[in-house]
Specification:
heterodimer; A: alpha/beta; 6-stranded mixed β-sheet; 17 helices; B: mainly alpha; disordered C terminus
Chain lengths: 497, 357
C-alpha cells in the first residue's frame, strides 16, 4: 500500500534518515520501532508531508507520489495522530472533528454529530460526539484524534507513540480499536519505542537504528530481548538484577498531606506513607493524579495546605527548596530541561547546581573543583561527550539525564526522589539508570520513585503505592503486584476489584 | 589543549562575526544615504574619521562620549543576564544626574572622598529607582518593561520638579543646580584639549567587575541561572525573587554611575532636561551589539560613542546631515538584532550545498 525506497533526510550534518526502505501492506498493523532520535518520527513526518525528503521516493498504492504537505497527505488518505493532541478543549468532540472541514457558511451541527456518531460506532470507538473535549479522558481524546483522521477519509493511520499517555487498560482498549480498524480495511503504522507493545499490537515491525533500517520482521514468535538487541545493537538486560531489600530506619514520613494544584484545586488529599533507608518505594498512577504536586511538596517547590513531612525525624514541611536540599534530599526532577539543568550552562556549572555556594572559596567560584566534580560524574555515569566545558543544551536527552542523576546521586543525601527518571531515554540508558537507582538503594539511601511507566515501577520498587485523584488508593508489596491489579487501581476501579 | 584554543577562537570568531558584518552593512547603507544627500561618501567618512580619531583631542572626545555608554550598556547587559529587560536605564541615569549634582554641592568632604561619595550617591539613586521595578516584578509579577518605561517619565518630571522648586540656583538664568564643588570632581584633562576625565577608567573597572561578578562568583552564578532558567533555579533552591531584585539593583547602580560620572566629569551641575538624553536607550543598543558581554559592551559603546562624536563634524565638513549617522547606527542595530537572518541564510547555504553534493 505504501512503499518508501531510499528515503534520506538530513538536518545540517545530522542524517536523520539514511536510505530507508519500508513497505507497508494493506490491512496490517506495522510497528516502527527504534530508540529516541532513531528517526522514526522524521520518517513518518515525511510520509505525512511535514518534511520533504532529500532523496528517495514514495509510492502510494503502486504509483509514485510527491507529498508536499499534510493536506496533500490527507487527500491521498493518510492520517496522522501526533503524540501531542491538537484539540480545542472547549469545543465538543464533533466540533473538533469537523474543525477545518466545516464546509459552507453555516455550520450544520446536527449533520456533523450524526456523522461522527456513525463513524464512532462503526469502528467501535465509543465517543460521545456532544461531550466537551476538556471533560473526557486522555484515552478518549486520543480516539477523537483517530476519528478526526477517519472523518477526513484516512485509509492509512499513523499513530505516533500512542500509548505514552495511556493506562494499561486503555492500551488494551486501543489494541482492540486498532484490530477493529484493520478488520474494516484500514492500515495502521504505530511509532513506538516500547517492545512489549510491538509484540502486543503489531503484525510486523521495522526496526530503525540511528537513521538506518535494520530489519523488518513478523512479530509472531519474537521476544522482547530479540527486538531490544536489534534496536540497541547489542544485547541488553531488560530487568535489572536486584537482591531483596533490607529496609532500615524510616527516612521519609509523610502524614496526612494535602496540597492544591496551580489552579487552586485540591491535588494531594490526605496522603500518608513512609520510605525507609535501603528500599525503593514506587508511586504509580496515570499522569495528573497528584504525583507532581506531591513531589513538589516533598522538595519544597510547593507549599502543603496541611499535613506534615518528616525527614529523619525532622519536620521539613515548611522549608524552602534550599533548606530541603541541605537537609539531605536529592531530586531527579520530572522535567529535566526546565528544572533539572540550566541548558546554557556548561556541564561543570550544572553539576554544582543547587550546591553552588559550597563550590566557592573566598567568594569566588572554584572552577577547578567544579571541573573535577564534572569529570568524576562524567566517568562514573558514562556521559558523552566527556567534556566538562560542554553546554548541557548540546547533550542528548539521555546524557542530560545522566548528568542530573549523577549530580543528585553524588551528593550526600539520605533520600532520593526520582521522578520519571528514564522518560524518553533509550533502552541502554534506561538499563544504566535503573542499575544506579538500585545501587543507591543498596548503599542505604531511601528512594522514592515516581513514574508513569508501570514497567519501571514494577521492575524497581520494593513497595508500590498507587495514586488516584490525589489519594494513595493502594499499597502493594512488589512481589504481589500484577500489572492488571495496579492498572485497575490506577483507573480508580480498585475498590470493586 | 591546542584543540581547545582552536575551538575557543572559533567560537569567538562566530560571536564577533555578526556585529562586524552588521557594522559593514551599516556603513554601506550609510553610503547610500550620503549619496542620496548629494555628498561625497569618501569625504564624509574621512570627516567622520578625523573627528573620531584624527587627533589626540578627537580621541579624547570620543572616549568622553563612550564613557556613559559603557555604564548604560553594562546596566542593560547585567539585567539581561538575569532575564530582565531593563528599559529604565534612562530614568535611573536621570535621577543619578540630580543626586550626584546635589551630593557634589551640598556635602563638604575632603578631595577624593567627596568624589567617591558623590559617585555612590548617583549609584544609590539609580539603584533605588531600579529596585522599585525589581520589587514590583518579583512580588507582584508586573512586567519590568512596562514599569521601567513608566518610571522613565516619572524620573524626567520628578527631577524637573525638584530642580525647579528646590534646587535651582536663583542667580543663574538657565535652570540648573549650582556647580558641584571642586572636591567632588573627577580629574579631567587626561588628554590636553579634550574633556577626557578619569570616568573612563571607572567605566572599564565596572566592566571588569561585571564580568567577574557574573562568571566568577556564586551570586553571579545564581543570577545567570535565574536568567537562563527560572525553573531550574527554583529547583536548585535559588531564591528567584531575591535575584531579580538584586539584578535590578545592580543594573540601576551601573546606570546611576553613568549619571554620576557624567556630572562629576563633564557637566558639573544638573541642567533642566527638556527630554530624554538617550544614553539609557543607546545602552540597550550597546548591550545588544556587545552580546550582553562586558567586553562586547566596551566595543559597542566605543562604536556608538564614535559615531555620535563624529556625526557633528560630518555635517559641518561634508554637508551630510547628522541623521545619516543615526541611520548607520540604526542599521547596525537592526542587523545585529536580525541575527537570525544570517543564521537562516547560512542554513540555506548549507542546505544548498548538501543538495548539490
Amino acid at each position: 500500500m505504501l512503499k518508501l525506497s531510499g528515503i534520506t533526510k538530513r538536518f545540517g550534518s545530522l542524517v536523520a534518515n539514511d536510505h530507508i526502505d519500508l513497505e507497508v501492506r494493506e490491512g496490517e498493523i506495522h510497528a516502527l520501532l527504534g530508540e529516541n532520535g532513531a528517526g522514526k518520527t522524521t520518517l513518518m513526518n515525511i510520509v505525512y508531508g511535514l518534511y520533504a525528503p532529500d532523496e528517495g521516493t514514495i509510492e502510494w498504492k503502486g504509483r509514485p507520489v510527491r507529498i508536499s504537505g499534510p493536506s496533500e497527505a490527507i487527500k491521498l488518505g493518510i492520517g496522522m495522530v501526533h503524540q501531542h493532541f491538537m484539540l480545542v478543549p472547549v469545543f465538543t468532540v464533533a466540533e473538533n472533528i469537523i474543525l477545518g472541514k466545516e464546509g459552507g457558511f453555516l455550520l450544520d451541527r446536527r449533520k456533523a454529530v450524526e456523522e461522527v456518531r456513525r463513524l464512532s460506532e462503526q469502528y467501535g470507538l465509543h465517543v460521545d460526539p456532544e461531550a466537551r473535549v476538556e471533560s473526557i479522558t486522555v484515552g478518549q481524546q486520543q480516539r477523537v484524534e483517530i476519528l478526526k483522521a477517519l472523518y477526513r477519509g484516512a485509509e492509512l493511520l499513523i499513530l505516533d507513540e500512542p500509548t505514552a499517555v495511556l493506562t494499561p487498560q486503555e492500551v488494551e482498549e486501543l489494541g482492540r480499536i486498532m484490530k477493529n480498524l484493520v478488520s474494516q480495511g484500514k492500515t495502521i503504522i504505530i511509532i513506538t519505542h516500547k517492545l512489549k507493545e510491538v509484540l502486543q499490537l503489531a503484525d510486523r515491525v521495522t526496526v530503525i537504528r540511528r537513521g538506518k533500517k535494520i530489519a523488518t520482521l513478523d512479530t509472531q514468535g519474537r521476544t522482547e530481548e530479540e527486538l531490544a538487541a536489534l534496536m540497541v545493537g547489542r544485547s541488553v538486560s531488560l530487568r535489572v538484577p536486584k537482591g531483596p531489600a533490607r529496609p532500615g530506619k524510616v527516612v521519609l514520613e509523610v502524614q496526612s498531606l494535602c496540597a492544591k494544584n496551580a489552579r487552586g484545586l485540591p491535588a494531594v488529599q490526605d496522603v500518608s506513607f513512609t520510605v525507609r533507608a535501603g528500599e525503593i518505594v514506587g508511586i504509580c498512577g496515570v499522569d495528573g493524579n497528584g504525583q507532581t504536586e506531591l513531589v513538589e511538596c516533598l522538595t519544597g517547590l510547593r507549599r502543603a495546605t496541611s499535613g506534615h513531612i518528616f525527614l529523619n525525624g525532622r519536620e521539613i514541611t515548611r522549608m524552602n527548596p534550599r533548606q530541603i536540599r541541605e537537609a539531605g534530599v536529592g531530586h531527579i526532577p520530572e522535567d529535566r530541561q526546565r528544572r533539572g539543568l540550566v541548558l546554557d550552562f556548561t556541564m561543570a556549572e550544572n553539576v554544582v547546581l543547587g550546591s553552588q555556594r559550597q563550590y566557592a572559596s573566598w567568594g569566588v567560584m572554584n572552577m577547578r573543583r567544579m571541573t573535577d566534580l564534572a569529570r568524576k560524574i562524567i566517568e562514573a555515569f558514562d556521559v558523552r561527550p566527556p567534556e566538562p566545558a560542554y553546554r548541557a543544551r548540546s547533550l542528548s536527552g539521555g546524557n542530560q539525564q545522566k548528568v542530573i542523576v549523577g549530580r543528585e546521586m553524588t551528593r550526600d543525601t539520605s533520600l532520593l526522589v526520582a521522578v520519571q527518571p528514564t522518560r524518553g531515554l533509550d533502552v541502554g540508558a534506561i538499563e544504566f539508570i535503573h542499575k544506579q537507582l538500585v545501587q543507591a538503594r543498596d548503599a542505604g539511601k531511601a528512594v522514592l520513585l515516581v513514574s508513569l511507566e508501570l514497567d519501571e515501577i514494577m521492575a524497581l520498587s520494593d513497595r508500590i503505592l498507587v495514586m488516584y485523584k490525589g489519594r494513595i488508593v493502594a499499597e502493594v508489596p512488589a512481589h504481589e503486584a500484577t500489572e492488571e491489579g495496579l492498572g485497575l487501581w490506577m483507573a480508580g476501579g480498585g475498590a470493586s476489584a | 589543549m591546542r584543540k581547545g584554543i582552536g575551538q575557543w577562537m572559533g567560537s569567538l570568531l562566530e560571536t564577533i562575526m555578526v556585529p562586524i558584518l552588521s557594522i559593514a552593512l551599516g556603513l554601506l547603507v550609510g553610503t547610500l544615504f550620503i549619496l542620496v544627500a548629494g555628498a561625497d561618501p569618501v569625504e564624509a567618512y574621512s570627516a567622520l574619521f578625523r573627528a573620531v580619531a584624527g587627533s589626540p583631542r578627537a580621541i579624547g572626545e570620543t572616549l568622553v562620549a563612550t564613557t556613559p555608554l559603557i555604564f548604560t550598556g553594562l546596566a542593560v547587559a547585567l539585567a539581561f543576564r538575569c532575564g530582565l529587560f531593563n528599559i529604565g536605564v534612562e530614568g535611573q541615569y536621570m535621577v543619578a544626574l540630580l543626586a550626584s549634582a546635589l551630593a557634589g554641592y551640598y556635602l563638604h568632604l575632603p578631595r577624593g572622598i567627596h568624589a567617591l561619595v558623590t559617585l555612590a550617591a548617583g549609584a544609590l539613586a539609580g539603584a533605588i529607582w531600579a529596585a522599585i521595578v525589581g520589587i514590583l516584578k518579583a512580588y507582584r509579577g508586573v512586567h519590568e518593561v512596562i514599569n521601567s518605561i513608566m518610571l522613565n517619565y516619572i524620573a524626567l518630571y520628578f527631577t524637573h520638579y525638584l530642580l525647579m522648586y528646590y534646587f535651582r540656583e536663583p542667580s543663574n538664568r538657565a535652570a540648573a543646580t549650582p556647580y558641584i564643588l571642586e572636591t567632588a570632581r573627577l580629574t579631567s584633562g587626561l588628554i590636553p584639549g579634550s574633556r577626557l576625565h578619569t570616568g573612563i577608567f571607572i567605566a572599564l573597572a565596572a566592566a571588569f567587575f561585571v564580568w567577574f561578578f557574573l562568571w566568577k562568583t556564586p551570586a553571579g552564578y545564581e543570577i545567570r541561572a535565574v536568567g537562563h532558567s527560572p525553573g531550574a533555579a527554583e529547583y536548585a533552591g535559588i531564591n528567584v525573587k531575591k535575584n531579580i531584585i538584586l539584578a535590578m539593583v545592580l543594573s540601576g547602580a551601573l546606570s546611576g554611575l553613568a549619571g554620576a560620572v557624567q556630572t562629576q566629569g563633564v557637566m558639573f551641575k544638573f541642567y533642566e532636561q527638556m527630554g530624554f538624553i538617550g544614553y539609557g536607550f543607546d545602552g540597550i543598543a550597546v548591550a545588544l551589539l556587545g552580546r550582553n558581554h562586558p567586553m562586547g559592551v566596551i566595543f559597542g559603546a566605543l562604536l556608538f560613542g564614535a559615531l555620535t562624536q563624529g556625526s557633528g563634524s560630518m555635517q559641518a565638513v561634508a554637508g551630510v546631515p547628522k541623521t545619516v549617522v543615526w541611520i548607520v547606527q540604526g542599521t547596525v542595530v537592526f542587523f545585529v538584532a536580525a541575527e537570525n537572518i544570517f543564521k537562516y541564510l547560512r542554513r540555506r547555504r548549507v542546505k544548498a550545498e548538501v543538495k548539490t553534493a
